[in-house]
Amino acid sequence: MLNVKNAEIADLEQIMKIYRYAQDYMIKSGNPTQWGHFYPDADLIKSDIDKNACKVIYDKDGIHGVFALFDGTEPTYKHIEGGNWLNEEPYLTIHRLAGDGQVHGLFPCALNYCKKISLNIRVDTHADNKTMQRLIEKNGFIKCGTIYVKNGTARIAYQRTDFRAARFASISLNTTRSAARSVSSSVDRHSDNWQEIVER
Question: InterPro entries in the record, alphabetically (predicted)?
């Protein structure tokens, strides 16, 4: 069973092994420029760990995946071309997701972790990263447009939001409670012997 936890400095060696594997995979699969051989480097990952932003995905056999998770405004997301974000509500941003190629389900595991924190999640990827695009779209993200990272290169921007589902659930729950109160009031009016049995 896969789980997520904050990375520790002691995990750095395994994390960098995973990123080296991901770099090689990207290059061999036709995506040579997104990360190349040098991104992300150990200093960046140490910084992520210090901020509690670096998360590792693990099971009983050890660490199999890694990603960075940020809560707050992503500067490169302020300007988007060719579309719009689904909303401007607070959101989480997933960056630098990578796996060791040994297990399946890393992205859904990371997403489930994020969904416990926020209903609003954004992510981006390179146009040549077809594998990541398929994973993102398969897991309910909507393509919103194009953003540009710090070095000026373009990324496809995605967002997933469960606000509408949450609002629908809230409306349904309120409707059920209202109906329960109406039934209870009707019963009370017709007999003093009835007891209210609906939990509000």
Answer: Acyl_CoA_acyltransferase
Sequence ranges of the domains in the chain: 3-161, 163-200
- Check residue 164 and give its pLDDT: 58
Class of the CATH domain delimited by 3-161: alpha beta
Here the tokens at position 141 are 């993200």
Nearest to 141 by CA among 161, 164, 117: 161
Tens digits of residue pLDDT in 18-76 = 999 999 999 999 999 999 999 999 999 999 999 999 999 999 999 999 999 999 999 99
Token pair 């924190």: residue: 117
The secondary structure of 51-118 as a DSSP string is TT-EEEEEETTEEEEEEEEEES--GGGSS-BSS--S--S--EEEEEEEE-SS-S-HHHHHHHHHHTT-
Residues forming beta bridges with residue 117, ordered by sequence position: none
> Rounded to an integer, what distance in angstroms lies between the CA atom of residue 25 and that of residue 39?
13
At 8 the three-state DSSP class reads coil
Task: Tell me 34's DSSP state.
Answer: S
Helix (H, G, I), strand (E, B) or coil at 130: helix
**87 contact partners, CB below 8 Å, separation of at least 6:** 120, 159, 161, 163
Task: Report cis status (omega within 30 of 0) of the bond before 40.
Answer: yes
